[in-house]
Every structure is written in C-alpha cells, then in structure tokens.
Design goal:
The complex is a heterodimer of chains A (406) and B (170). Chain A is α+β, with helices and mostly antiparallel strands. Chain A folds into three domains: 115 residues, 2-Layer Sandwich (Beta-Lactamase); 112 residues, Helix Hairpins; 155 residues, Heat Shock Protein 90 (2-Layer Sandwich). In chain A, 50% of the residues lie in helices and 19% in strands. Chain A contains ten helices and twelve strands. A five-stranded antiparallel sheet of chain A has the order 2-1-5-4-3, sandwiched between helices. In chain A, strands 7-9-10-12-11 form a five-stranded mixed sheet. In chain A, strand 9 and strand 10 form a beta hairpin. In chain A, helix 5 crosses helix 7, helix 6 crosses helix 7 and helix 8 packs antiparallel against helix 10. Chain B has 170 residues and is α/β, with parallel strands linked by helices. Chain B has one domain: P-loop containing nucleotide triphosphate hydrolases (Rossmann fold). Chain B has five helices and six strands, in the order E-H-E-E-E-H-H-E-H-E-H. In chain B, strands 2-3-1-4-5-6 form a six-stranded mixed sheet, with helices on both faces. In chain B, strand 5, helix 4 and strand 6 form a beta-alpha-beta unit. The relative contact order of chain B is 0.21. The mean pLDDT of chain B is 94. Classes of the chains: A alpha+beta (406), B alpha/beta (170). Chains A and B meet through helix 4, strand 3 and helix 5 of A and strand 2 of B.
Amino acid sequence: MHIQEIFNAIYVNHVYEYLVINRNLKIIEYSDKVFELCVHDSINCKNMHLTDAVPELYGLEEEIEKIFTGENTIFTLPYILKEHHQYVHIHIHPGREKEVHADKKYRYETIIILFENITHMAIAQQSLIQERNEKTLLLEELSFKNDQLKDFNEHMQSLVNREIKNNLEKQKLLELKSRHSQMGEMIGMITHQWKQPLNVINLIVNVLKINLQKKSLKQEEVEKKLDDILKQIKYMDQTVSDFQNFFNPFKEKIIFNLYGTIKTIIELVKYEYIHKNIALELHGNKKIMAYGYPNEFNQVIVSLLKNAKDAFMEKPHPKMQITITISEKEGAPQVTVEDNAGGIPKEIIENIFDLYMTTKQEGSGLGLNLAKNMIENNMQGEISVRNTERGALFSISLPAPPPLEN
Amino acid sequence: MISKKIILIGDFSTGKTSLIRRFVDNQFSDTYLSTIGVKISKKLIRLANGEVLQGLIWDIEGGTEQKPLNTTYLIGAHGCIIVADVTRQETISNIKSYIESVQKISVSAPFILVLNKCDCISTSQREEIFDKVLSMYNCTTREIYLASAKSGEGVETMFNAIAGQMLAKG
C-alpha cells in the first residue's frame, strides 16, 4: 500500500500533512494538503529540494543527516508560524529502512517531514503569553516609576535638609549679627554709666590731693574716701559683670526670675534712656518665674526697648515713657512692653515680625524677627503686637517652669 | 544566490518583530503583539560592495523568566542579532545569557548586539548606554548598534552589518 493511501486512511480530518524526502533531500512524496502548510507557491513539489519547499529547514541539513544515519531518531522544530496565521510543529522522522546489504553509513533511505497543525493551541497560548507579558511590562513600569519616585523623594529630602541647614546657618549668622549690634550699643551705655563713678572717683582723688597739699588730711578721712572709691569701683565691676552675664549663652533652659532679669537690663541701659528723656518703668509681680534661656529673653527685651526708643526719636513726645509689666495668665508668665510713641503703622503691623521688615532708614529688619524666633522656636512661647491708644504694645507669653522634682 | 539564516533573539517586547517588519516591509505599529514560536521572513540584502544575499530572517519568541529561549531555533544559524530595549535595563543585562546560547549552539555564527528603541532616549543617554554595553560585553563598535524600529534609524545598518560579517565568514 502506498504511504499516501495509508495516511489518508488513518486521518480523515487529520491535522497532519507530510513530505517524504530521499537522501538527496528531494521530495518524493507528499500529502494532499501539504501545500497549505509548507509550500507557498507550488502545487507540484515532487523532486523539489526540501529547503526550497520548507525554508525553515535551511541550515538544518546536519540534523537531517543524523536522522538518515540513525544517530538521531527525531528532530522537532516547534511553533512555526506559516501563511494564513497557521502554526505547525515540524517533526523529522526516519522513513523506510535500508536493506542490510546496503551502504552501512545510512540506515534509512527516506525521511518523513511531518507537519502538525497546532494553530488552535498556539493561538490559545499566544493570548496567555500576551497577557503575561503585558502584566510583566506593567510591573516593570510600576517598579521603574517607584524607583523614580524614591529617587525623587530622596532628592527632595536632600534639598530640604540642605535648605534647613542653610536656614540654621543663616539664623545663627543673624543672631550673631544682632548680638554684636546689641553688644556695641551696650558698650556705649556702659561707657556712659562709667562716667558717673569715674567723675566721683576723680572728685574724691582731687579732694584727697588738695587736703594732702594742705597737710590737713586725717586718717579717718582717708579711710572714708577710700571706701567711697571702692564703692564706685564695685559699682563699675557690677556693671561689667551684668554685661558679661547678658551675653553669656545658656546651653540649657533654666528657671529664671522675670522681675530680676528685666531689672538688671534696665540698670544696664537706663542712662541711655534717661539721657534721651525716656522714662523706663517696671511693674508687676516680683516673684513670677519663667522657663527658658534668660540671655535670649534679655536680648528680646533690649530689642523691644530699642524699637520704642527709635520710635520716640522719630516722633518725640513731651512725656516719653516705656512701661514693662509682668503678670501671669492661666499659669503662664506674661510680659508686656508698651510705649506711648503713637503705635505701628497699620499697613505693616501684620508683617512686623518678618525678616528684613523695617520702617527705619538704618534698620536691618533683624531684631523683631529674631525676637519672635527666640521666643516661639527656642522657648516655645508666644510674642504678638497690637496698637493701643497711646502706642505699641508687645505681649510675650512664656512657658511656666516645670514642676520641681522631689 | 547565497541564502543565510539570520536569527533575532532577546527578551520579550524588545522589538524584534518590529525591527524585521521595518526592514522587510518598511512598516511600524505601536501595538505590542507577542510572538509565539518563530516566523520566518525573506529579504534580499544588498551590501555596499555589490554583493547580494537572501536573508532568511527568523523572528524568535522573546525569552521570559518563565519561558526561556528555545535553543532549537539557533541550530544552523549563520548570523545572530541579539536585541535589547534601551529603556529596560534588565533586557541589557540579559544579553549575556543570549550570547552564551549563541556561542554554545552556533559556535561559528557572528553576532551583533542591537539596542532598540533609541528614539526614546536623549543623545547623551545613547552615548552612555552604548559605552556601558561596550565595556559590559567587551565588544568592538562593529558589534553594537543603536536602532529604532519606530523611526527606522539604524535598521538597515544593523542588517547590513550582520550580512557583511556572515559573508566575511564564508
């Protein structure tokens, strides 16, 4: 029986087509519909070279040789997409075996090239693989975006950190600048304060000198005059100590007496204000304690006093007065500094604590901004301002001291 | 006329089918359709020196973690184009395993590396990736090509390059 007849007998609606080739790779037999799966442009492929009919087998001559020799029993080229979207597996099988007395090198005379139509299976697989690959691409995209987001966040964080560092450095510089400025002013005030005791000492020394020349100097008088000089020197020494304390930075928050602290400041600066006919008054409870950095609090008070003094210089008043009042509100220490210089212009009062905000020609706009920073950021208090009938009123609220441990 | 089997391999969605479509039909589509198995296209390749060869270009299903490259397709290849996607670093890292497969199955077949989708990156990024791949795989500049199936840039060049190398091998 002919192979073709056997084949057709077995597979009526078969999914297989075949070619039979000889050792010269020439087609010697083929199934009816093999053209649909392998040969594109020829119905009669008898004696055609295998690779002309099935270009997919080009380059596989060695593998086909191995089937002829019996070295290999089968070779499959899977999932080959043919014309009209048909998929085939191409199986290469040995065909008719040679007789024993024939050429020993080759075991088979023919080879069968079998085309298995697997289009349905391939299409189903294609949709599965398509779905899987699309999901993988989406996941890759997601992961890429996540990495980008992470990089962006890290970049933003580094920018924020750099900005914070810059701001801190800037703040420190501003504080230093303000401190130096205040120090300069205070040195001026101390010079002023020292003039009085120096005059007294000068006077005493002159009296002593005259009496010595007159030879009327008595032991008791010398002792008394020396005591007077010592008193003046002690006063001058106290002034310098207060000045040193004023600028001595406290590393930790401490509990301090508001009245005593403000009184010391007034003692330090009073001559400057007296000289300018500005009265400084301090009222309120002498026992109220606050919790924070006293030197920073001192700087805030000096800054507020200076602002009031500058306001008076611009708008002199027959009875210039600055009143500092200490009180307590719901357990929190309060300090108000009020002047009668007419108040802050309405258009700037809301921004008065902003950096570089100043109404003065030679002002830096640092003082009140630093004051706010010191009270609110460093001491967790509050500072605000409003205009009264007489002038500006600054209110400071500080945290109450923590309860003492047993 | 001389026929040569040229295979394109690489990870899935690197644009192998699009590169062939651009080369054979001068067409491009943005739609991604995964290849199953292999599809063979024919194209005459004319070299600058006048030589012509018939390219049997094998578009092979892209490798994935779950389904790696079927190396049966590599048997008898005369030249190989390994394709990666410049926008997906992993496809560039995976070039190594494709080189190993080619060197194992088609020992004497020359191969080139093609970095596809170069239209998606800037000129400076192209230079950076090119140099990186050059040093990663210890290649010469004749073995690496930037291409874009979308714009057509570098497509002729890469096929001509592999054809030239195959002919030089004989």
